[in-house]
């Protein structure tokens, strides 16, 4: 009863504040503008379409596959700032500047009740002079669409038992748009589907975030060089791991590792990076990393700068 | 069209401030509870007191408490957390109905006990203290942000802040009820 009364008083106060603001726009024509400008608050933000509510940075950043995660690794986190109710959404853009290549990707993810994540990313891989050397033409760009779905099956990144991580399962369906190239390098298919299982936990007592992912995949260079080899899809389990240290509520330093197969005999290497992420506002997170992507299509030592921006609501 | 919007807006005007104030206590049948003249707290029903009610074991490392400014610093941080939350539109509705005099004391005792700064926790256990509040995860996150702000204002190093949060986070089981 008392709590109800409290909430009632708050909503009453809020309404009055709103009316006072409305009075500043007393001409009828201006009133419609006032409706748009004057703050409409509810006591617990129950009616908001994008309610937000996650602790800053706990929605993680966006991985190159569009799913919530680190830069090159997928995490068990669900994108968007919503908690256990409502919707959240993120959008991101990433560039990786390498000695012989240029990577650009962008995408969106929708989080539903911090339970389900649906994501899409477009990857554009500019082969620059390598394209000319391989007979594709200078600046030939490989393109791939990645459609992802992720389900949080247990645990919570922050709360609950400190030894019980947040665990998610996911699928990433990849459609390479350069089938002629993937066939030419010996891949079995231009399309493929990865299956991932992730466990992530923020160990507050150490200010550390740890994440591990097993990926069952047939992708060559994450799919940019197609899937499988010859006529076989030959799936294998690959590993992704991240460790990050929280410097403050808004700043994180970390390292990532991602193992990769070498089905095509082109000397494909494991990937790693060292990253710094900063939440400029509760909604904007910038990530800068030094990424070592090893050998790509026989061009070795592809190390360079990784930059990513993510907007989240 | 505009005149209709105008008329609707006028009809929604709240009564002027000078009008006869409504006795909301009478409207809702609320009985005034007398505060204890010594402590300023509203008496609560008796319950078994135990350190177990604090919801976690004290920290092994008693040196962490120094980062919080010892017992007095911890008391001020707990009080500031409650004040921020009372004025936080996201969760004020949860706090407005509660005895914040008592809450400031028991919260300070709990933090002090968990930080091994030599206090006894005399409050109720977390499940009993949060029953029927209907706390959601977003509400708990808002409280965490207010506690973080209070600790920041008292220059508690971030790693030490997280040591306390690490003690509190598992209590979500008993605090988040919907």
UniProtKB/TrEMBL annotation, chain B:
- List positions binding heme: 130
According to the lineage, what is the superkingdom? Bacteria
Keyword Transmembrane helix listed: no
Q: Which UniProt keywords apply?
A: Heme, Iron, Metal-binding, Transport
Annotated region (Disordered) at 32-56
Listed GO molecular functions?
A: heme binding; metal ion binding; oxygen binding
Q: Which InterPro entries does this chain map to?
A: Globin-like_sf, Globin/Proto, Hemoglobin_trunc
Q: What is this protein called?
A: Group 1 truncated hemoglobin
